[in-house]
């Protein structure tokens, strides 16, 4: 078993390696990053012996975030996150001299008080995948926003009329971008016809369909008087109206 105290700083790590008895075979200042992690693995391999397993390496570190801690967890080391205040109280409790480094106190803590410390749990593969996708999405959104901010600044200096013309579309809309790509200069944009603009807006479903004309109710004609199936001749009708019955 090897115990590691890792006093983390912004650009380096002061580490101390102890065995199960508290003996200190090594101490070093390692750079932050891949090179520092590699040197730490070299120290472990050098002082851990042939039978040492990754789970037999126990590290105490003042932060559980960042690629350094995750790199130790990924290879199978047991990593404990220890608050700096806990380190200070540990020093007071055991009367550790101020000359002793925090790395020494951290190594002592994972050797003596490990059951009172919090191990850092490694993320599941699914959680790591979600984190990667979420970070990629965030990066894309930020880049998209910054790109359109630069576009807006450029248009304000070179083509301010476009900001007014496309105010209702917003520059992030695909129809506004198509119109800008089609006619990117003020002179070219002035030649756009209403038909061309309408075609772009319709292609992107920006235009509302015109409502169909309301249907008019059918015209109703006044009823016609029924006709006699055997109409009289004109002369017979006249005679019928003028005939006077005998007294």
Would you write up a description of this structure?
With 247 residues, this protein is α/β, with parallel strands linked by helices. It has 2 domains: 2-121, Nucleotidyltransferase, domain 5 (2-Layer Sandwich); 126-203, no CATH class. It has 10 helices and 6 strands; from the N terminus they run E-E-E-H-E-H-E-H-H-E-H-H-H-H-H-H. It has helices at 34-48, 67-74, 84-94, 102-112, 125-158, 160-165, 174-182, 186-190, 194-203, 234-242, and strands spanning 2-8, 12-19, 26-31, 57-61, 78-81, 118-119. The chain has a 6-stranded mixed β-sheet. Helix 2 links the parallel strand 4 and strand 5 (78-81).
Alpha-beta classification = alpha/beta
Largest sheet: 6 strands, mixed
CATH class of the largest domain: Alpha Beta
- Unreliable segments (pLDDT under 50, ≥5 consecutive)? none
Q: Mean of residue pLDDT?
A: 76
Order of helices and strands: EEEHEHEHHEHHHHHH
Question: How many individual β-strands?
Answer: 6
Pfam family, one: DEDD_Tnp_IS110
Biased composition (Basic and acidic residues): 230-239
Organism: Streptomyces durocortorensis
Protein name: IS110 family transposase
